[in-house]
Write a structure and sequence with these properties.
The chain is an alpha/beta fold. It has three domains: about 80 residues, Orthogonal Bundle (Arc Repressor Mutant, subunit A); about 100 residues, 3-Layer(aba) Sandwich (D-Maltodextrin-Binding Protein, domain 2), CATH 3.40.190.10; about 100 residues, D-Maltodextrin-Binding Protein, domain 2, CATH 3.40.190. It is about 40% helix and about 20% strand. The strands form three sheets. Strands 3, 4, 5, 6, 9, 10 and 11 form a seven-stranded mixed β-sheet that branches. A two-stranded antiparallel sheet has the order 1-2. A two-stranded parallel sheet has the order 7-8. Strand 1 and strand 2 form a beta hairpin. Helix 1 packs across helix 2. The two termini are about 60 Å apart. Keywords: DNA-binding, Transcription, Transcription regulation. Belongs to the LysR transcriptional regulatory family. This is DNA-binding transcriptional regulator, LysR family. One of its GO terms (molecular function) is DNA binding.
Length: about 300
């Protein structure tokens, strides 16, 4: 059964005249008649009663007409959905987030997205840190991911959304809680809490690098899977940690102390693969450029 045959039947059924139906479809009567006969053969039933003076619907034709309208309406709706998806008006966008800094960016992005592109659903995938974010963007399991620079990956594009620097986090009753600043070397005897080893978190790598630069290897005694857990352990007095300034407005149960001397800076970026970039994901990126402009 061909959609053109259904369209031809609807035209004839509504006009009850082959000549007018042919004009409506911008064709001539012979091919129109052939389409009706082909449709009738495929259905195994007569749809139209024809005489030299008039055209009428058979009982089968009368029953078939509403169904034919539904078919054509469904086709039109499917075409509209495809057009909307192609123009980035609808779709699902999966974005990977690890750490509280990127999470703090999401409310503004979601609010703007809902206002401008209500047909796009943003699905947030949590505990996705930089290396995993790059991997998942490359294999297409994520459309976008927040990653920490200067890490790079072939085939992945990035855009910086905010700058950060390392800062010390201690419990409120820690001896350093009242300090205006602290030298990294002063932390050589401290117990540290960090993300798990194995390249999961670039923040862990930056913390270790900074400590080694200061002349010691941090004594890591506890691991936390994400920032809020690490900060809860710091608040409990189980150790200290080096974190980034984006947590200052989000975490309140610890005391943050600036680092003296050389600043250890990093950048948070949005990453995507041009190979897997859908129209909906491209629309999210355009909105993110306004909501989260490059500093």
């Amino acid at each position: 059964m061909d959609l053109r045959h259904i369209e031809a039947f609807i035209a004839v059924a509504e006009e009850l005249h082959f000549g007018r139906a042919a004009e409506r479809l911008h064709t001539t009567q012979p091919p129109l008649s052939r389409q009706i006969r082909q449709l009738e053969r495929s259905l195994g039933a007569s749809l139209l009663s024809r005489t030299t003076r008039r055209v009428t619907l058979t009982p089968v034709g009368e029953a078939f007409l509403p169904a034919a309208h539904k078919v054509m309406k469904s086709v039109e709706e499917a075409a509209a959905v495809a057009a909307s998806a192609a123009h980035g008006e609808i779709g699902t966008v999966r974005i990977g987030v690890g750490g509280v800094g990127p999470l703090a960016c999401l409310p503004g992005l979601v609010k703007r997205l809902n206002a401008e592109k209500p047909g796009i659903e943003l699905v947030v995938v949590g505990q996705v840190y930089s290396q995993a974010g790059f991997d998942m963007v490359v294999d297409g399991s994520l459309d976008l991911a927040f990653v920490r620079l200067p890490a790079v990956r072939e085939g992945v594009s990035t855009r910086v959304v905010f700058d950060e620097r390392l800062i010390l986090a201690v419990a409120p009753d820690h001896p350093l809680a009242g300090a205006e600043s602290v030298e990294l070397a002063e932390l050589a005897e401290e117990r540290f809490i960090a993300y798990p080893p194995g390249g999961v978190s670039s923040l862990r790598d930056l913390m270790v690098h900074a400590c080694v630069d200061a002349g010691f290897t941090p004594r890591i005694v506890q691991y936390g899977p994400e920032t809020s857990t690490i900060m809860a352990m710091v608040a409990a007095g189980l150790g200290v940690t080096l974190t980034v300034t984006s947590v200052l407005d989000v975490i309140s149960n610890v005391v943050f102390v600036p680092l003296a001397g050389r600043p250890y800076q990093t950048q948070e970026a949005i990453a995507w693969s041009q190979e897997h970039l859908s129209p909906a994901a491209a629309a999210v990126l355009r909105i993110a450029e306004e909501v989260l402009p490059t500093p």
